[in-house]
Amino acid sequence: MDQPTERNRLDEEESPYLRQHADNPVNWQPWDEQALEAARDRDVPIFLSIGYSACHWCHVMEDESFADGNVAEVVNENFVPIKVDREERPDVDSIYMTVCQLVSGRGGWPLSAWLTPEGKPFFVGTYFPREAKRGQPGFLDLCRRISDSWDSPDDRAEMEHRADQWTSAARDRLEETPDAVRGSAPPTSEVLERAAEAALRTADRQHGGFGSSGPKFPQPSRLQVLARAYDRTGREAFREVLCESLDAMVAGGLYDHVGGGFHRYCVDRDWTVPHFEKMLYDNAEIPRALLTGYQLTGDERYAEVVRETLEFVERELTHPDGGFFSTLDAQSEDPKTGEHEEGVFYVWTPAEVHDVLDDETDAELFCARYDVTESGNFEGTSQPNRIRPIDALAEEYDLAEAAVEQRLEDARDALFDARAERPRPNRDEKVLAGWNGLLITTCAEAALCLGDDAYTEQAVDALEFVRERLWDDDANRLSRRYKDGDVKVDGYLEDYAFLARGALACYEATGEVEYLAFALELGRVIEVEFWDADRETLYFTPESGESLVTRPQELSDQSTPSATGVAVETLLSLDGFTSDDFESIASAVLETHANRLESNAFEHATLCLAADRLEAGPVEITVAAESPPEPWQDAFATRYVSGRLFAHRPPTDDGLEAWLGELGLEDAPPIWAGREARDGEPTLYVCRGRTCSAPTHDVETALEWLEGDDPADAPF
């Protein structure tokens, strides 16, 4: 029988990232038992390379090393080379990235790791050039030296000892939990304010965002902390830093001013030049933060960018049947050279703008507004940044402001059409359950906040897509990835938690109980597969899943929100609808990690939001009606109500009986019990801080009660 490592097996995979490497002379293997067994049988190390399809330096390392025949000969002879798509296998990525960060103090992709046949790492790094340069060892020489050391008994013993130490360190960081302290309690809402205070200390008050240098990342979870802390305390500085960050992101190069949507991050302090890939999760979480900013400030620009971003997603990242694709690459073909270059699809020169726009004034206005200059801001070209205000341009060109705005809008339309003729960046068309959950939540929130049913449809279509293709009704289990009919990988905590939050948001936006029922099903699997009652924590990988060298938790916020934090907050939201004791699980997780949150709240923004949700309780808005009146929807759309939970129910108890049957409940939960419509009219019941208002038919009365200093003293 042929050894699997005698050929490159990535042509059997559906991951676009893995298939990008299917023609390499390196005999790449997917992460599976065949490859791992081959390493044990051959008694050679594993060379593990982790990346993703939109990763610029992953492409560079492929071009320099993995496509090189001489490099491939050394790698194939001395290692079992395994290629992993980090978006499909975040569990594998988490373990070895943690080791890289512990050992080197930094991380990133491509991640390069050499492992024992048992999967324990003994050498780690990120990008390596083919030949040594600028203090970096060359990849080819490194492979030779590692192979020689492996064949030396003394050196191998040292490598295996190091592998044991590093694996133990990763296990301590990722898997272990603190010993229980008698009489301990979950953290209070103080951790939310601590996180917000830390945000103030690290805020760049000149350029927006966090940190005094580049690169600048969006950090939407921290922005949500600032919003809720402002709502809790009224401290104006929290609101100011939130708005400064949002303003910087929507004005600078992070945002695609021609086509909508956000790039991954900016390489500089002032948000001018982005790293050009577009990730689904950024285009979910940043608009969600903008919706929060819109409700707090009424700034129409925030709402406008949300609309443009969701239009971009609908146009460029949506499967014909409704699910959302994962990424757009940073690189695309430069028509002038035929080479693939970063950002070439998005950047402009003044000459290119003038070629597209017939009117000289229109071209000058666009270049002045969006910083398109002869010198450029990116390799001799310009990534548009919105730098000149409309009133200044109106004065300079002796035009009415409305005329300037219309000219710029027409110019953007023309440039968008011209840009569409350029070679496009590649699209990673795998559909990930968790990432879809993030955007489903945002679309449902946009429907509630902006009053557009199209966003409800967008959310529901994606939820149905994921449910039909990735949810197994018989097994009650979720898979992570769908690609062209192929389903792969058991769902992780983030898949269940993010999708449960999205399903709950769809229930809030539509009042349809089937979405609530699905959210509850997902919540129950979280308890069965991820909750460890002995250690009182939630793990990232399912109990029934593959056993790796350690079982990670995800407590801090990364490029996506903490899976544990979203799970805890979602379980708290679902607790009021079920006889399952979700609150006890959420409380125990927060209690287990209380010291971590109290000592470093800033790195655990989503868990801090969950801790605040536990102490404060949700703002429960029970709506007893066939459908809420339009004035109710408009009134709530324009107000930020932190921790808000819309609990729709039928107007009569007879109608509620059918819902209880669908949810498998014998009795109505407290959030619905005794809350039928009064006098045959739609009725609101509002609770905050576990104190409730009287039922009312008037939404403004309910809002006045919510906004009172002490709801218990409100005049009813």
Automatic annotation (TrEMBL):
Chain segments annotated as coiled-coil in the UniProt record: 390-421
Domain of life the protein comes from: Archaea
One Pfam assignment: Thioredox_DsbH
Sequence ranges assigned to domain Spermatogenesis-associated protein 20-like TRX in this UniProt record: 8-167
Region (Disordered): 1-24
Gene3D superfamilies in alphabetical order: 1.50.10.10, Glutaredoxin
One of the GO BP terms on file: carbohydrate metabolic process
InterPro entries xref list: 6-hairpin_glycosidase_sf, 6hp_glycosidase-like_sf, Ssp411, Ssp411-like_TRX, Thioredoxin-like_sf
Presence of keyword Cell inner membrane: no
Any one GO molecular-function label of the UniProt entry: transferase activity
Sorted UniProt keywords: Coiled coil, Transferase
Name of protein: Prenyltransferase family protein containing thioredoxin domain
Biased composition (Basic and acidic residues): 1-10
